[in-house]
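Bug: token stream looks shifted between consecutive jobs. Job 1:
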Amino acid sequence: MKISDETIDRVKSARSIVFFTGAGISAESGIPVFRGKDGLWSKLKPEELANFDALLKNPKMVWEWYEHRKYIMKESKPNSAHLAISEFQNYFPEVTVATQNIDNLHRRAGSKTVYELHGNIERNYCINCHTFYNNDVPFVDGIPKCKCGGLIRPDVVWFGEFLPQDQFNASEKASEDCDVFFIIGTSAVVYPAASLIYTAKAGKAYLIEINIESTEASHIVDESYFGKAGEVLPAILEKIKN
């Protein structure tokens, strides 16, 4: 894929870069996306599994599904797009990742400043005493129970819940101040996370979209590259290194 001179010039002159990522980047690691014709939500109703009421009504079913997702994500590995984003840290003073993904692949790839807008599936906590658990979740008859007797839930943002305020505020600040803002593998329809795109635009950042198809954000970006992030990002990085 041809990378424009404008992209290279803008990125090279940047001091601060933000990578705003969604399910598309993780799909290249084999993790199913939620939207689209092959997405999880085309097979399941989100309200059945991804909300607090579902946990209270049928914790065993919710946890069976999340244990399956945890396994998929644990077995997946960072792909060339994750690794390229991490390598950007070697060439620029400020590199921030604001991700809608819960798979922890950016941290596993080596990215240091990662804001998790929708949580992290590798963390869990008790809904009563807020004790945190990693992979040491105790189960009683297929239901995760804390030592205090409370239900344990994944530390992810479900439908109807607010984003973690510290993660969103930090992402918003980075988006306001950045020189280049990459939009990678996201449909740009999930709010409030998608508002970061418009925050970056208002801050005069140069917006570069990398997606397999056009999105709701395509009309406001400065450049769009339609293809796999695992191919486009390494190509951009290689030109910068040279």
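Job 2, same session, no restart:
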Amino acid sequence: MKRLIKFAAAAAAITLLGLTGVYGYFSDSLTVTNHIALGDVNIDLKEYQKKGSTEVLYTNPKSVVPGESVSKIPRITNLAKPCWVRARIVYTDDRERVEGFQDEMLSGMSEDWVKRGEYYYFTKILKRKEYADLFQEVKVPAVWGEEHSGQKLGILIQAEAIQAANFVPDFSGISPWGNQKIQLCVHEEDGAAACRGEKMNLSVEFNGKAHKLVSVPGDFFINLGTAMPGDHFEDVVDVSNTTRKEAELFFHTAVKGQNNSQMEILKGIRLTIFMNEKKLYKGTLDSPELEKKQSLGKFQPEQKGKLKFVLDVPADWDNSFALRKADVQWIFSVNEEETTVPERTPQETGGNPSEPGRNRYPVKTSDGLDPEKAVLLFLWSGVSALVGLTYLICRKGGRKE
């Protein structure tokens, strides 16, 4: 009986020791800062004139005579994102009862311009740094006589633009742009903005060799480029575990440090996240719900998954949002259970410390004990104490008998 109790106590102690070698958790976190930049619609209108074989800036002639052709080239240049343009021509005249300039006196206008109402619409999209000339010259009618002497005439041109992204004019209608509200541009730069380049593959990997989380690239919104009102954008982040152990990956966001202007952007842009086709979140980028850790699942060794995200920019955003920027941090973290292996002596390993089984990497416990295993440890401690106490009582009782 004594031998049996001693064996039971030893077994409990051995089991307890076995448990204490499984509590370590390895954890790591990775922050990816995603940048949001809103684009701008920005055009420039300058007038040129022919001088020989070259072009120079236009200057008003002091006087013209009947039958003369005046070189005048109104040029609309796009300085920012692709856009549609239109122009309105207003003629001024200091005499009411005498004929003045009219559209018929303009020449050199491309067939890409169509007149609808009081506007001329350019029927092709202007990309950045591209331009469109409204016309080339003004012809003074040869039949004009003495009654036009001293008459003061003018041609005023007003150019307007609207984004090409998410907008298609109807040139067959009376008003191709519809009832769009035209606003004064608010850009503070020359319109130079980052353009969308070659698409990059996005990934987060729990790397086996480095034993840490690795991301490529450092900005998961890089394929978005500069956003425009009404933009709908989708992309996929490849998530994988290349270690030899099961690992659970988590995701959450942070938007601290943003000013009111930036927060207004984050409050407006809608985000939807899927993990392997399962919807994890749908809402705005500033939602407190996103700041809570969400599990992306437990990944077995060499297992892969896809994190898909969708961004929707409000279509009703106007010029007040032009060139604004904001950041949102996506934070990935990992928990990996680690098991310690008892240290083996040189005699047991044959003098080879690199033999499998040698505990060369100590357990990391940055996340502390798993609550379930802590309870289990407590129970086993109680069992060990109870077995030991029972052994002492039985031993003492045996002496009395």
